[in-house]
Amino acid sequence: MSMAKESRNSEELMLADLSHWEIGPYHGALPGQMCLRLTLDGEVVVSGKVETGFLHRGLEKAIEIHPWRAAITYADHLDPEAAVFGELALCLAVEQIAGYQIPARAVAIRAILSELSRVSAHMLHMVKVANSVGAETMIHYVLRDRERVLDLFELLTGARFSLSFLRFGGVRNDVTEGFIERVLEACVLIRARIKEYNDLFTFNRTFLKRTSKVGVITPELAKKTGLTGPNARASGLPMDVRRAFPYLNYPSQDFDVPVGRGEGGAVGDAHDRFLVRLREIGESLGILRHLAESMPAGDFLCPGVELDAATPETVALQIPPGEAYARIESSRGLLSCHVISDGGERPARVQFGVPSVAALAALPEVLKGIWIEDLPVVLSSLDISLAEADR
Amino acid sequence: MSAESLGFSPGTPEWIVSIVGLLGVYAVVIFPSVALMSWLERKLIADFQARVGPNRAGPAGFFQPIADLLKLLQKDTRYHWSWREGLWLAVHTMALYSTVAVIPLGSSLIFVNTDMSAFLPFWAALVLALGTMLLGFSQKSVNGWFGGVRVGVQALAGALPALVCMLCAGVRAGSFRWTDLASSQGGLPLGWTAFSNPFQFVAFVVFVASGLVLLSIAPTSGGLSRIDLHGGVSAELSGRRLSLFRLGRFYVFFLWSVIAVVIFLGAWILPGNLAEIISQQIGPFSLAVIELVCVLVKAYALMMGVVWLSRVVPHGRVDQITNFAWRVLSPFSLAALMGAAIWAGWRALL
Amino acid sequence: MSDLNDKPGTSIFSTTKNYLVDILSGFHSACGSFMTALPYLFGKGDLRKEVTEQYPDPISSKTADDLPPRSRGLLFNDIDRCTGCKSCQKICPTDCIQIEVDQRPDSAKVWVSVFDIDFSNCVFCGLCVEVCQPQSITHTRNYERAAYGPKELVASFGRGKITPEQKAKWAAQRERNGEEGIMSP
Lengths: 391, 350, 185
Prior knowledge:
The complex is a heterotrimer of chains A (391), B (350) and C (185).
Chain A: H1 10-15, E1 19-23, E2 35-41, E3 44-51, H2 59-64, H3 68-76, H4 83-98, H5 104-132, H6 136-157, E4 166-167, E5 170-171, H7 179-202, H8 205-211, H9 219-225, H10 229-234, H11 241-244, H12 270-293, E6 322-329, E7 334-341, E8 349-353, H13 356-367, H14 375-382, H15 386-390
Antiparallel strand pairs in A: 1-2, 2-3, 4-5, 6-7, 7-8
Helix pairs in contact in A: 3-4, 4-5, 5-6, 5-12, 5-14, 6-7, 7-12, 9-13, 12-14, 13-14
Chain B: H1 14-48, H2 64-73, H3 83-98, H4 119-137, H5 142-173, H6 178-183, H7 198-215, H8 226-229, H9 239-264, H10 274-281, H11 284-312, H12 318-349
Chain C: H1 12-41, E1 75-77, H2 87-91, E2 97-103, E3 110-118, H3 127-131, E4 137-139, E5 154-156, H4 164-177
Antiparallel strand pairs in C: 1-4, 2-3, 3-5
């Protein structure tokens, strides 16, 4: 191929009839800023290398040089598509150190927010998959309904994306008037819409053709690379942090953990990953309805915690010295947060363990043998967030 | 074509008539069709997708295509001019519009009407598809290269079923002359070739589908794939060149729809003896206009159906598309040809 | 779209059957997709209305009044209330607030000479509003701040820098009054 990019071993490649193509760091098919170095045999990928780090913002370092309260805002930007999970992981860890007892109402508000985030993030995943196979109408329908969820965020927190709503010891405000009713309304609406998506797209023959047996992740590979969340569940590993290491009020919630059943042809293919997320939306809607119907009364903030600084000198919150680790189930998998406090005005160390890194680790193995046209499908179905992976 | 019927004085030289006719087809049919269809497509698809669509330029955004054209004309190209790309685009465009001579648009608006005239647009379509492939190859990018290969592969895969389906229509009409193909059909839907018998209907469906494969029209547009190749063949084109290319893409779609309408969907034949009445009462020029409108409306409807399909279903992968063309369209077209032949023979015996 | 199930050992009948079933199901699912979109064409029911709006049409698009009550818009600082305590500057995660204060002739108050908020950095997290004791900094309901360059995105609420002469004059005034500055130099 004359257009092949020169590479060090171009002679070898030519002898083997292979070509070399570098995609990225900016390309529409990629989930963000990353670079793929592909070796191609015609249009089939022989091997691929993944290079990341283009989106490194020094987020963990930035947390260390700012006051405790500002860490929430940075945790927000860990994964802009599902902001509340970063906040939640950080808050849970810090509250362990500080020993705050979170009121039941605040816990319920947090659970509502994280389930809404899961719904919106999974819907965005559906949009990405629909985009990668060129189904325009599906994109518009799902985005339209995701707007309803974002409207709820805006109603509760005042922002649509970086919510900055959770606080150490609770949440910033109580629920807005009419919020609970609108959550219930949205649950009904989205449940009705899922049927429409299924008619339009999920079991469409062409979509099945494009996604079934494409980008298969075997359970072994999932275990080897430490894959968690919907990606691992699609491969048949029923691991859910909400079940395995319960937090918030998930023990009292009744929900199923959907697992990939290989309806598209192989367990752990792109279609399974799509279906698992679609089913998780359904489960989340059930949790949301239960939470909204059984909203406990009471405070939204741990007693003794003040949100406004009494004096300019106490604007920086003081967290007692200690170390804590919290893990939650984000929309992409296991999100962990490790916090070390030295008792000062600023966190001594905050470290996030993110699920997208595992997906990136599995990627070179998944890329083998796929077509160039499958590349966007595989990348979008893995639902990688590079903002989260590069931090 | 009869020069007198279009208002030329009897002594006008042939070449003037043909040049004026060709330019007239461009100005009156092709360009307004592009504008109208792009507006209609955007408006209807917006409706399907719960959006508003163009609404600023003129009433209901009707003049949006003109605004788009003016904007695209003043856009700068992204890269420096490369003679290779320019040459291929020029050749591509010229080949594209040469085929306007073989489009039948009414009983009097036929430039070329020979015994084999139905095959001319077919070969023209093949030339256009392979021209698009070469345009892709001429670009200095992997996107264009892959796009070109995909377009070429699809053109080869779609050619056989398309050709066989054309034979089906010819078997029924007993000729490949445009006028014979048209006059073998009736003015009402039941008299159209596509609905005359089940085999012809299969042939019609396969003909349209294989045209989409042959010409890389969405949803089978792997070579122009937006998401993985940034537009494939058109990845490096921008501004005026891109608008020229897009115009060409629309044109091949239009060409194929018009052929499908003429050979399968009743062409320009009006119900009953309406044509004679119009010709005698109002005049041959009005008849030509009405026939033109008849063909165009059917072609637009067919195009809208395809566009609708392409927007609701996912797009196929190129190997699946060629697979589909070879393994589904080809056998079905051959079966349709056998059926159509037996049907025609049976009717001849009766 | 169809694919042959070329499994070894299958009979020609089952292969043919699979082939035809494949084609039929492809046809069926394409029709299903077609029909799902059809009701939208006629705009049937509330669920299938157009949802996009003609921004910035004042008639149909959302205005500031339609925003939810807690909406976090552009920041505004009421300089008459501001005490120049710099809490907001201290808490700001993106360091987008720049404050400079000077002493006034009457030392009870400070002269906030510079109070700049750089909206190109601001993430609208609302922490500054939360910690502001005199409640001078607030979110407005305005969210439209397109500009041609990052410099235009800096909003200045300060009273303006004072000249050295003015500074000296005020210091002398303070000395006359025998007051000590509330601020350490």
